[in-house]
Predict the 3D structure of the following.
Amino acid sequence: MPNHKSTLSPRALARLANLQLVARQVVEGFITGLHQSPYHGFSVEFAEHRPYLPGDPIRHVDWKVYARTDRYVIKRFQEETNLKAYVLLDTSASMGFTSSDFTKLQYGVHLAASLSYLMLEQRDAVGLALFDDHLRKLLPPRSVRGYLNLILAELEAVQPSGKTGVGEALHRVAERMKRRGLIILISDLLDEPADLLSGLKHFRWDGHEVIVLQVLDPLERSFAFPRDARFHDLETDEMIITQPWHLRQAYQEEMGRFLEELKTGCRENGVDYALFDTRQPYDFALVEYLNKRKKLY
């Protein structure tokens, strides 16, 4: 039997052209690795009662209970308690960087597709937002399985473009969110920490729960380029030639401070934060989602 980790690796899955097949492979491999399904048998069947409140639809009153107890109660259905989630994917030009043949954006697309697949299997409602320094696309949350096709179609069409403006884009998305839910942000977060954290605070002030999944290329963390290199800014088109080993220590120290500032800022604002590179299997992110879901329900 193949190791489920190998089936979840970005390198193995990059060979699959069909995004739905990628998502299914990730989720099914993840479940195999857990040795028990995270699917909790959600359905729209009757779940529980709650007291009748003025304004509740009369058709939901359980008249059999009223006949026995002389109390008005409402049939509460499982759909009422399911999670509403929004997957926010950064599509800016910086997400197009790669030191191999698999970009940060491709990793983010696969991750967004897999999370959407898993949430819809659990009958959670999931929506999608695509952004660079502006909000480019917003699909509202839906819980029907057929909605996955629309989400995947949007993800398959994504191309890296535009400047990074995570903080500003998050404000724009937050203004469009009508109901509280779970926000899952997938981005390299290569923005000013203060601006980024301001956008995350906006979600928290509005009562949303937030998971941040930061995706970086391995060389963006190590700066371990083996020879003289020409660096091309994907957003400004500027180029510079330098000797990376002269800068490596200073770069690593600065990157370390940057990541620590993000991590600390998220923690102080009640935001779950996880750092990934494009070599890591996707199941680490699925665990982050399930852990958060367990806390919420």
Q: What stands out?
A: The longest helix spans residues 244-268. The two ends are 34 Å apart (CA to CA). Residues 46-79 form one domain. Residues 35-47, 77-81 have pLDDT under 50 and may be disordered.
